[in-house]
Design goal:
homodimer, alpha/beta, Rossmann fold, Rna Polymerase Sigma Factor, Chain: A, 2 domains, eight-stranded mixed beta sheet, two-stranded antiparallel ribbon, 10 helices, 33% helix, globular
Chain lengths: 387, 387
């Protein structure tokens, strides 16, 4: 198996892709099956001889596999460059990092944007409604393909943290360590509500055409931008918005008594909305938010969250941020309580920051220090060679 | 002057209306003028002989003059029935309550929905962008018309609280007491951001037609519903959403793996959106949210909030709610700090509740008790006859 040079940005931009299904269809939680499915992914670092140093990085709602390489559409740095690389917390001199686009995504993995082989048309809304469990099942098949029996670590923030938890629950023997960051074992009522606003914004766009916009050679840009804008507010804290923007005006000395973006925060949000639509598929947004809404680990274990981690051998590092109101610390505490009830090996850190939910993407010293400490300890225990 | 019987719901449903401008045009903060303008209002209770018992109730973003009578469109109880009536905190046996639709509103007062007399067409986006100060100026003209020199009290929650503060600042001699509830002296960056999301949702609706939907015999229902849904989440606390809905399903035993409203919270939000569009004008939503964004009392006083209340003779009762994250207690504290700097007569109560911003509309015992205590004391001081 050829592993791409992690620092060769030109080759990793193209991305790696594998079509799976030869070993059987992918069975989904909805009861339907995908006979064949593709997974687009990136790797960074080198897989060691006994394949024990693999780290699976799981992305959030609007992330993708381009965690630590220049994004092929936006030309921007990867979304977790601060985390992945030589000498960084996810040290590519020590670990082999795998970052795959989730099932249902829009950057190459099978999802509503891709062609349904049975019809020759994009799946659109005929794509099966998927779950976090389905995403993880698809990732497990990628690992099978790569010949990796056990991950050294599965890690992610937000929806990525849901996957990290789901991995530990569904495949405890395939996970040495799990790091759910700014995440939860179930989506809250408020988060379902925000998810629904985003979906309704997309569906309200007349260019959505019941999801069949490809057939009309159009896209529901306006609705998707509104969905992104509403969501983006929830990623920041009130304090961060105040510090960053306050009531500062955008390129003007006084208010204009009109509906232009007088305030910097308006201009910023509009920019967030308009750039997002260039790289994200509206139907993917529907499917992925739905998968998050449906996530509730206790429900699948007769209402008992501890049962989801029964006698788990996995080492956990649960991290939350004080100013995160989308996935507040209380959500992480629930996970920790359940793990404690199973006498699991768990460390829990609530990082003091005013940067809100987005803190998991940022260069937060206390957060990174926590992570490095945990990973070093776990890697030593796993017998991984020091860089 | 004929005062409507407050308990005659059929007559008060029709509403009262006055066209003003004979005493001069209404000068707006934008520099433009409205030569003539109309104010739609309701009254409850009886004005006493020396006209000293008038209470002006100021409504929030989506409120209107129908505070304590059946709403002529929805057929529902008034939005502040729990507050206004015989024996209620705003006791109609003691006070004469005036509730007027704000300038820019859509329930009869001059606003973008009304006809511009110069063109014979609805104002739509040609309506001047108004401010909280303009709303208050129009209300002052209504009081002139009613022959009321001084309000016993001006009271309101959210945007209504902004008006209560603006009244005290702009017309200190015309206000005996002011009660801003769940409000602020300036709109925060986060609130401007949410306002912008609502506006963009409306403008993204193809039926908006640059505000000229009346000319196309349509309305941007879908966009306005999305705006309402997003805003509605901010009116509730996470705890209230969790208590009220949690992850409970709507009329089904299990998730459907689709995009219907599986969860009660989705169904509730959709209902909030779809009923709102029957009673509210999309352009009004744009203008009123803009007025809130522009509200910043300090800016008009060289950056000094205390200067906005210089040597104020007004008695203040500032009220906030612990779980209100839209207008958090910190916003109220800023007002109180400024009033204290002016040695104003101010009492401040933070009411413990998990009901979020919406608490100001609800029957919250501690809130009502606080209010009754303050109003009774002030009324006695003002020499108002006990009921």
């Amino acid at each position: 198996m050829a592993i791409a040079d992690p620092m060769d940005r030109s080759s990793s931009n193209a991305g790696q892709y594998v079509e799976l299904g030869d070993e059987g269809a992918l069975r989904l939680d909805s009861g339907t099956e995908l006979p064949r499915f593709g997974v687009a992914y990136q790797t960074y670092g080198t897989l060691n001889a006994d394949k024990s140093n693999a780290v699976l990085v799981c992305h959030a709602l609007t992330g993708d596999q381009h965690a630590a390489n220049t994004h092929p559409i936006t030309g921007k740095l990867g979304w977790w460059e601060v985390m992945i690389g030589p000498g960084r917390p996810l040290d590519t001199d020590r670990y082999f990092i795998i970052s795959s686009n989730v099932l249902g995504g829009c950057m190459g993995s099978t999802g509503p944007k891709e062609i349904n082989p049975e019809t020759g048309e994009p799946w659109a809304l005929s794509f099966p409604v998927i779950t976090i469990g389905d995403m993880v099942r698809a990732q497990a098949r990628l690992l099978d393909h790569l010949g990796i029996d056990q991950l050294f670590c599965v890690i992610g923030g937000s929806m990525g943290g849901m996957q990290a938890l789901q991995w530990a629950s569904a495949y405890p023997e395939r996970v040495f360590a799990s790091v759910p960051i700014a995440s939860a074992a179930r989506h809250s009522a408020q988060n379902i509500a925000f998810g629904e606003v985003g979906r309704q914004a997309i569906m309200a766009d007349r260019n959505w055409h019941g999801g069949e916009y490809h057939a009309h050679a159009t896209t529901p840009h306006a609705g998707l931008a509104v969905a992104r804008m509403a969501a983006h507010i929830t990623y920041l804290s009130e304090a961060a918005l105040h510090r960053k923007f306050g009531r500062k005006l955008q390129d003007r000395d006084s208010i204009t008594f009109g509906f232009d973006a007088d305030f910097q925060v308006e201009s910023y949000l509009r920019h967030q909305g308009s750039t997002f639509v260039d790289r994200f598929d509206a139907n993917s947004y529907l499917f992925i938010t739905r998968a998050m809404d449906y996530f509730d680990m206790a429900v699948e274990h007769d209402g008992s969250l501890p049962a989801a981690f029964h006698k788990t051998p996995v080492r956990f590092c649960v991290i939350s941020f004080t100013s995160d109101w989308l996935f507040p610390t209380a959500d992480s505490r629930e996970v920790v309580k359940a793990l404690n009830a199973e006498a699991a090996n768990v460390s829990f850190v609530e990082v003091e920051t005013d940067k809100g939910h987005d803190a998991f993407l940022l260069d937060e010293p206390e957060f990174h220090k926590t992570l490095v400490g945990f990973l070093n300890g776990a890697a030593d225990k796993r017998g991984l060679k020091k860089p």
